[in-house]
Design brief:
Number of domains of chain B: 1
Number of strands of chain A: 0
Helix content of chain B: over 70%
Structural class of chain B: mainly alpha
Oligomer: heterodimer
Distance between the termini of chain A: 35 Å
């Protein structure tokens, strides 16, 4: 995320890529792993598939899309 | 100093653009005037009004820890950078509503819709979204219904629950109707839309089994599959035997849509709903960006006059004068009560600093409002004659093309059968007459903008691309609405018999889903058999219900503002609330009592009943008349119910406010106690 002064375009592209991954949820599992490591070390961590299923179930049990 | 100067420049530019619109009233106007005026108005609203509300009324406090920080569980409560929250929030609030409403309201000319979208958003919708977002953030991300219960009392809570459930039913029915009208006797559109289902399932399987959670990879795969669906639909359209397989009547399509939504509501979300949503979100954002660029590149002239004679209430798309009906027809894009469910749902649990609510709440709605402006431009750049020929039901203009062009030309909007035939053939359709619902005319408008930007040769492809874009997220909203409705119904039924409330007990899941689909499927079916197109009845009802929900949200906000001792600032939410109460009540009153059968539901029902009894109806109309009569009476009852809920909540709020101002006890504030942020500084620092 840190901007490189010599390659502003590349830095912008990298920032956009990071934004896109996070906003789409593409990096959700990595963020989850980081959260678990930081806040709940030693506790069991869900696998990728279980984490994906769980997060989808949670996302779609409330109002998450509008008219 | 610089900020002040640029603010003044912005104000000047806005005044210049609005003045330009005002001075060009009798000649065609360029779309760029409207785009410029809109952007300046949003920026002014954001820069000054939103900042003032945040500082003075809401007392936004960046040092206060948000629920995302205090309750961070790495799952739903996650402090998130504001650019990400903005993306999430915008994707959640932007639906098909701002595309359909402005298209229908274009029958009044471009001016009433444009003014209401701008004024309504800046003083109504954006304010509602930002205020509710902050109030929910201060209350651990509680939902609108919970806030109503906590802050007003059980009556407010119950009213908002019933209101939300009913709005889901009406919303799903009207979106289903728009979708059916898009696909009716259009093999290309039908084949393409049907093909998006297996496309979504393939992406679902990919994200579940092959590469779990790799959303971007899955979306690229989905994008390729959607492109295949689009081109494949065109190919099928050229095969005489195959195309017959995808040529359906409205009733058959209504049954298909209902069956599809039922399965989407009971299947695991990862299989169909979640992947469809990824595809629809990318398609939505991409197309909206493309449309914005194309409008600026082509800067088309608007051919619709500023005002048409239909402001007197004789409009063919729906009956009723410009007041109150333009304010009911355009809900999403100006103010949408539904947004308050999102602003008190997932979004407040992601906010990492209270300072972000202005960008996410106010800014997110301003962007959605801009989408509505673009839809209005796409509708008004068509020849008005063409616009009315596409959007008016056969019951109004006559069943044959000759009769239709005769009627429409008689209104002063010349159009010919040859012109419509050439347009339909350029768009790859059999006919474009009476394709009500707003989506087909929007697609024609978008196709002509894209066509003149990227090449005229591909008009048919652009048209069906626009159709697919609309259909994919009509379906996404339909799926999600049915599913949420199912959960709410199960929640309600759980009070009657506990096992019905278990969201994983299959008999209850199937029962609640079927009940939900049956409820909106009924309105969809009646809309489909209505010779006037059905949208003319259902869309105003949807507008009334959505504005009712907005009024509930603004009542809660007003109650909380007054309870917090800031009565002098209460006008910020009280003013839009008063306007909505007036508009919604007037519209509902006219829908129920008007003796004009094009407006009044009861007089229309009585008129039809008298004609049926006298035996003067043609046989095809006599068959459906009893159902239409019953439905119009039911709709009148619903309009009455919505208005009653609206006033109940307003009175409940007023009662609380009067008690507070007199110093009598009121329900205690449910605001979470202040706690400072652990790590002050950048939002990203908190997010990591």
């Amino acid at each position: 995320m840190s901007p490189a002064p010599h390659a502003p375009l590349a830095a912008t592209a990298a920032r956009f890529w990071a934004w896109l991954r996070e906003v789409s949820g593409d990096d959700a599992y990595e963020r989850y792993q980081r959260h678990q490591a930081a806040h709940h070390p030693g506790e069991p961590v869900l696998g990728r598939r279980a984490h994906y299923e769980e997060s989808q179930r949670r996302k779609w049990s409330g109002v998450s899309r509008c008219c | 100093m610089f900020r002040k100067l640029s603010g003044a420049a912005l104000a000047l530019l806005a005044a210049f653009a609005l003045g330009g619109i005002a001075l060009h009233r009798d000649e065609p106007i360029n779309a760029l005037w409207i785009v410029t005026a809109a952007i300046c108005v949003y920026l002014l609203g954001y820069r000054f009004y939103a900042a003032w509300i945040a500082a003075k009324v809401l007392m936004v406090d960046p040092t206060r820890a948000t629920p995302a920080e205090r309750l961070n569980n790495g799952r739903d409560f996650v402090p998130t950078h504001r650019a990400i929250v903005f993306g999430h929030h915008f994707a959640a609030i932007a639906g098909p509503g701002p595309l359909v409403g402005p298209t229908l309201a274009a029958q009044f000319g471009y001016l009433p819709g444009t003014l209401w979208i701008l004024v309504g958003a800046v003083f109504g919708g954006c304010v509602q979204d930002m205020v509710i977002l902050l109030l929910s953030t201060r209350r651990d991300g509680r939902s609108l219904g919970q806030m109503a219960r906590d802050e007003l009392g059980p009556l407010g809570g119950f009213a908002s629950l019933i209101g939300t459930l009913l709005i889901m039913v009406i919303l799903s029915a009207v979106l289903g109707l728009v979708l059916v009208n898009v696909m009716k006797h259009s093999p290309w559109a039908t084949a393409t839309v049907i093909a998006t289902i297996p496309a979504a399932i393939i992406v679902g399987l990919y994200l579940r089994f092959w590469r779990p959670g790799r959303v971007l990879e899955g979306s690229i795969l989905g994008f390729v599959l959607l492109a295949l669906a689009l081109v494949g639909g065109g190919w099928i359209d050229h095969q005489p035997t195959l195309r017959a397989l995808f040529d359906y009547s409205g009733v058959a399509l209504a049954a298909l849509v209902a069956a599809y939504a039922f399965f989407a509501a009971i299947l695991p979300v990862w299989l169909l709903l979640a992947p469809r949503d990824y595809l629809s979100t990318f398609l939505k954002i991409g197309t909206v960006l493309l449309l914005g660029v194309a409008i600026i590149v082509t800067h088309p002239m608007l051919k619709m006059p500023a005002l048409t004679s239909f402001i007197d209430g004789t409009g063919p798309l729906f009956g009723g004068k410009v007041f109150p009906f333009v304010f009911i027809t355009i809900a999403c894009g100006a103010i949408s009560g539904f947004h308050s469910l999102i602003a008190s749902g997932t979004t407040p649990k992601l906010i990492s600093s209270e300072a972000d609510v202005r960008l996410v709440g106010y800014g997110g709605m301003a962007l959605e409002s801009f989408v509505a402006i673009m839809a209005l431009i796409a509708a008004t750049l068509l020849d008005p004659g063409v616009f009315f020929a596409i959007n008016t039901g056969a019951g109004i203009v006559g069943a044959t093309p000759e009769a239709a062009v005769h009627t429409i030309s008689g209104w002063g909007f010349p159009v010919t059968v040859e012109q419509m035939r050439a347009l339909a053939s350029a768009m790859g359709e059999q006919t474009l007459f009476a394709r009500t619902g707003g989506a087909p005319s929007l697609a024609v408008g978008m196709a002509s903008i894209f066509g003149s930007t990227f090449g005229q040769g591909l008009l048919a492809l652009w048209y069906h691309f626009a159709i697919m874009f609309e259909a994919v997220f009509l379906l996404a909203t339909l799926d999600a609405g049915t599913r949420v409705g199912r959960f709410m119904l199960q929640d309600l039924l759980g009070h009657v018999w506990a096992p019905l409330g278990r969201t994983s007990w299959y008999p209850s899941v199937i029962f609640a889903s079927a009940a939900m689909v049956a409820a909106w499927g009924y309105f969809l079916y009646v809309g489909v058999i209505d010779p006037n197109g059905g949208v003319n009845i259902l869309w105003p009802l949807f507008g009334i219900s959505n504005q009712m929900l907005a009024a509930i949200a603004l009542s809660i906000a007003t109650g909380i503002i007054i309870k917090s001792g800031k009565a002098r600032y209460a006008l910020v939410t009280l003013l839009p609330l008063a306007w909505l109460a007036v508009v919604t009540s007037t519209a509902a009153f006219q829908k129920i009592t008007s003796p004009n059968i094009r407006i009044g539901l009861l007089s229309a029902a009585n008129d039809l009943a008298a004609k049926l009894a006298a035996g003067v109806l043609p046989p095809d109309k006599a068959v459906v008349a009893p159902q239409l009569i019953f439905n119009q009476r039911l709709d009148a009852g619903l309009a009455l119910l919505f208005t009653a809920i609206l006033w109940l909540v307003i009175i409940d709020m007023a009662r609380i406010c009067v008690r507070r101002l007199r110093g009598l006890p009121v329900p205690a504030s449910s605001e979470a106690a202040y706690r400072g942020r652990a790590r002050l500084g950048t939002a990203t620092a908190a997010a990591r």
